[in-house]
Specification:
The complex is a heterodimer of chains A (409) and B (296). In chain A, helix 4 crosses helix 11. The longest helix of chain A is centred in the middle third of the chain and has 27 residues. Chain A has a domain of 265 residues. In chain A, strand 1 and strand 2 form a beta hairpin. Chain A is built from 16 helices and eight strands. Chain A is mainly alpha-helical. In chain A, strands 1-2 form a two-stranded antiparallel ribbon. In chain B, 69% of the residues lie in helices and 3% in strands. In chain B, helix 2 runs antiparallel to helix 3, helix 10 packs across helix 11 and helix 11 packs across helix 12. Chain B has one domain. Chain B is mostly helical and 296 residues long. A two-stranded antiparallel sheet of chain B has the order 1-2. The termini of chain B are far apart. The chains are: A mainly alpha (409), B mainly alpha (296). At the A-B interface, helix 5, helix 6, helix 10, helix 12 and helix 14 of A face helix 4, helix 10 and helix 12 of B.
């Protein structure tokens, strides 16, 4: 039986049960409409908004891809990983190496293949996946918390390689990232010169669309993955490994595979990160980056794809915005003044937010949004709770619907 | 041979410091099921407090107060946050300690800035010769103090009522609670003990041959993680063995750096992690950790 029919029956059941109290069908038109409007706004944004916001947007898109990937691993499957920065680094370095030209800057003798950037991007994703696959024998054997600490190792080993393998990574000082281009269309300032409605479309504008497309693709893929059989299997695995294996889920294999997918996401995110900064340097891929990604998914809500995107938006945009509006904000001051540096202020906020979220709102921003949505739909309170429980009933009944014996394949 | 012995001795002294920190991890994990990522910033806090206070208070008093501050900070973290999350998933607990770590570390780095604060150990930067083998006096004292402290810890763990209560609650929390053991108090005490151990580690870690207190002490503290993990997170003896193993491996790799140059400069810093991965490949629960068995 295909999954789509399963979800279809599930939603039908939900509406039937909720139909007594609330007119559910009206919302089903509103939602796609809102999404379409949001997409249109996002598409039209480069015509009106200045470069800073577009660049921030691309950085956020990269973070969204990475956060969704980490969330699949940590939120959905319950495998704590601090190695995300390492896989980002693999993606970024591979892209720079494959797409970059050989040549020396000063003393450093840099190598590069000079292949098309698209190949570089694909190679970055694949190689990050390969790195994940190589680590997955360890990952699959370790239980939750051991994995979290063992994955620390990858970050430090990665740092060491980045610093030492100068020909490829540029060593301590890093190297600059080649521009992205797609079949002759460069995502740079010129070549070809492009004007849309008399607005010059330069690097920032072009990257904005690239980021939008990639982030959307990453989002849709993850959503579909979670709603399919592997997604259910992963969630079961998080809740109880014993139960999962009894249901016929091959625990080792699924753990290994989710590590693969997650690190491929990280690889793509790394490529985007390199493009957005314009260069790669070892210090960008330290433990701090891993912790930031963890902050994103915790704030967004573990296990929720949309939540990961929200968290990524919050965590990656905040320092940039602080930096830009440092003068206007209280407490935040420029460098050398009495106040906090923008990066520091943002870090305090993340730290505090993580603690508060775990203490008081374990489902994160996504849970908060869901709560408000429920309240807005039905101010009465009581029936809304009932319809919510009805939907959750029906979603939990889905995985038990098809017999789970074949899920090891 | 002399070089080897010297590296070995220095490795053991470094390992003794790692063992102190790793023991802190293990105690916390046993008592409250928390993998504490705050240990690094707690260590930096201790070092910072000792360095700042030793001017007005004198070294010995400052050391005591600094260790007390570290223990107090650990206590406050346990009471304010961890205690409220009893029964939460292990991952949430780990993540919340990362949150605490971010805040504490940001504040300390901001205060330290780019300075290197000096801790005026009375024994200074002198070194001692034992036969042909040289070691800095600071590190030698570290071995002795750490050894005494660890021995004391194991005695307390075995014989004191706190130790018995702690082992009981680690074995089976629910039954222990029914027997009248207050789990909250056990956990709080465990954090305090971990804080003290970390504070003592900080005292010696920032002495010679390390130049002084700088944010890099944080990265050093992180290397106690591999030590705790490879010994087995729930094994106190494992933390000791793991610490020594990591310390010696790091010291040897750093000492023979010239022969290992093809692996890049500063290879010694990553050796702890490589050793950890190698051990975990063979024994997923560390050397002495209890294997989790599930019956279906």
């Amino acid at each position: 039986m295909s999954e789509s029919t399963a979800t279809a029956t599930a939603t039908r059941g939900a509406t039937r049960r909720a139909g007594r109290t609330a007119p559910a069908p009206r919302r089903s038109y509103l939602r796609p409409l809102l999404l379409a409007v949001a997409l249109l706004v996002l598409l039209a944004l480069p015509l009106y908004v200045e470069e800073f916001w577009l660049r921030t947007g691309f950085a956020v898109a990269g973070a969204i891809v990475g956060a969704i990937g980490l969330n699949l691993l940590v939120g959905t499957t319950g495998q704590l990983s601090l190695a995300h920065a390492f896989f980002l680094a693999v993606g970024a370095v591979t892209y720079t190496f494959v797409a970059g030209e050989s040549g020396g800057i000063g003393l450093a003798d840099l190598r590069g293949l000079g292949w098309p950037p698209l190949v570089g991007m694909v190679a970055g994703v694949l190689l990050a996946g390969l790195a994940g696959l190589l680590f997955s024998p360890i990952a699959a054997r370790l239980r939750g918390i051991y994995l979290g600490v063992a994955s620390l190792a990858l970050v430090f080993i990665g740092q060491h390689v980045l610093n030492s393998w100068t020909q490829v990574t540029g060593g301590f000082n890093g190297r600059s990232t080649p521009e992205f281009s797609l079949f002759g269309f460069t995502f740079g300032n010129t070549d070809p010169d492009l004007f849309v409605l008399e607005v010059p479309f330069r690097e920032a504008e072009r990257l904005w669309y690239l980021g939008l497309a990639l982030a959307l693709a990453a989002y849709v893929f993850a959503r579909n993955l979670l709603r399919s059989r592997p997604g259910r299997a992963l969630e079961t695995l998080r809740d109880s490994e014993v139960a999962a294996s009894v249901m016929g889920v091959n625990v080792q294999r699924y753990k290994g595979r989710v590590f693969l997918v997650s690190s491929m996401y990280a690889g793509l995110s790394g490529v985007m990160y390199a493009l957005s900064i314009g260069s790669i340097a070892p210090e960008s891929f330290g433990l701090e980056l891993s912790v930031l990604y963890l902050a994103m998914i915790v704030l967004g809500g573990l296990g929720s794809v949309g939540g990961a995107a929200l968290g990524a938006l919050f965590v990656s945009a905040l320092p940039l915005v602080f930096q830009r509006y440092a003068d206007a904000l209280p407490l935040v001051g420029g460098a050398g003044e009495g106040g906090l540096a923008p990066g520091e202020a943002a870090r305090y906020l993340f730290g505090l937010a993580i603690i508060l979220v775990v203490l008081f709102q374990p489902t994160g921003l996504a849970g908060l949004a869901a709560r408000f949505r429920r309240r807005g739909r039905d101010p009465g309170g009581g029936p809304a709770d009932r319809s919510a429980s009805a939907t959750s009933d029906s979603t939990t009944s889905v995985p038990s619907d098809p017999p789970a014996q074949g899920s090891t394949s | 041979m002399t070089q080897f012995l010297s590296l070995l001795l220095n490795g053991i002294s470094l390992g003794a410091i790692y063992a102190l920190i790793a023991l802190g991890f293990v105690v916390i994990f046993k008592a409250s099921e928390v993998v504490s990522f705050t240990q690094g910033s707690l260590l930096l806090l201790g070092a910072y407090a000792i360095a700042r206070l030793s001017d007005p208070l004198g070294f010995y008093l400052a050391a005591l107060v600094g260790i007390a501050i570290t223990a107090l900070a650990a206590f406050v973290i346990e009471r304010l946050i961890i205690n409220r999350l009893r029964g939460a998933p292990v991952i949430s607990l780990a993540i919340v300690t990362i949150g605490v770590d971010i805040i504490l570390l940001t504040e300390l780095i901001r205060r330290i800035g780019s300075d290197i604060l000096n801790v005026p150990h009375p024994w200074g930067g002198d070194s001692v010769q034992i036969g042909d083998v040289g070691i800095s006096e600071n590190r030698l004292i570290a071995i002795i103090v750490a050894g005494l402290l660890i021995a004391l810890f194991f005695l307390a763990f075995k014989f004191s009522s706190w130790g018995v209560a702690m082992r009981a609650s680690a074995e089976d929390g629910e039954t222990a609670a029914l027997m009248g053991i207050r789990l909250g108090r056990v956990s709080a005490l465990a954090w305090v003990v971990a804080g003290i151990l970390t504070g003592v580690a900080a005292l010696f870690l920032v002495g010679s041959p390390t130049p002084g207190v700088s944010p890099s002490a944080y990265t050093v503290a992180l290397r106690a993680f591999p030590a705790a993990i490879l010994g087995g997170l729930d094994s106190t003896g494992g933390a000791l063995v793991g610490g020594l193993l990591i310390g010696v491996a790091e010291s040897l790799a750093a000492g023979y750096q010239d022969d290992l140059l093809f692996l890049g400069r500063g290879f010694g810093d990553v050796v702890p992690y490589i050793v950890m991965i190698a051990v975990l490949l063979v024994r997923p629960s560390g050397l002495f950790g209890t294997r989790e068995l599930t019956r279906v």
